[in-house]
Amino acid sequence: MGRLEFSRMQLLVTANTTTLSYWLNWRTLLCSFIVLTPIVVALFIIWKYEGLKQVKCDGRENQEGLGCNELYDDDVWRPCLQEIHPFWLLGYRFVAFCLALATISFKVVLNGCGIFYYYTQWTFTLVTIYFGFGTLLSIYGCYQHQKMSSCAFNAQHVRIDAEQGYYMPLTNRKDANVKRKTLNLQERCNVSQSAGISSYLFQVLFQINAGAVMLTDFIYWSVIYPFLTIKDYNLNFMTVNLHTLNVILLLGDTALNCLPFPWFRISYFILWTGAYVIFQWIIHACVSIWWPYPFLDLSSPYAPLWYSVMALMHLPCYGLFALIINTKHYLLSKWFPQSYRCFKIEE
Fold this sequence. Notes:
This protein is mainly α. It starts with 5 loop residues before the first helix and ends in a 12-residue tail after the last helix. The relative contact order is 0.17. Helix 5 runs antiparallel to helix 7 (197-228). The chain is built from twelve helices and no strands. Helices cover 68% and strands 0% of the residues.
């Protein structure tokens, strides 16, 4: 779904999209229903699971099926195995960020800012933001990990002092104070805080990208490249890079990270695609210009069918990524039962 040659794009110019007749017809009405209905449902699901969950956690209401503390502050920077130091996840995210940023920057230099007319570049930019944000969170996480390691070291020494004693026997009061100090240190070292807004935002970015990269690459390699490119179209390195690197980088991060993957956050993925479609409608209502993807053209008699197929594709694309994560959970929990720290996908 990348930027193809301009000559090909000229072929996609159809009816004048600025006329009322283009928009006031049964096809547009039906396509609007296909696009807007999932958006409304997605907003309701987000309100139910994000809004009411907070109400429950505050103790004011108890809604069945809504869980508290599904995400902890260290979930965004800790690797899934205890033996892996957070620095390795930091290193991976930094390298991935540099690769993604270099790719999208080179594409802008090569083709101009007009590339952001395409869903592929929207998604690739979001992947770049994800890894940039993840790098910052991992830097913070490495700092926190170092603090907790020092804290655990001090707690261990206090415990040894309490067990062995030094130079003189402790009175009952002093002994109780040392034990209390040991317990307090251990509690401060081992506690995991509930996630803040930045951690939830990072998880939302992860789940939007999970669905969007699968949708982008699947549609390009299964629909656009085989059927919608002009004859003798040359597949260049940048096009292949844009439609493979995004999913490769995200799968690598998925293998290392410990982020939960609740199903209800498919709603954000739906909102992301819906925002792109509405953006295209607004552009075409103002300017008669070619469509970036022919299946978005509302003048086609098959437009409702295309829009329905694209809407339904969100489920298998998101579901495939969820299956990959569940497979990771199953394998790593079997191979490393003592050190694996993630959980299965939540409902």
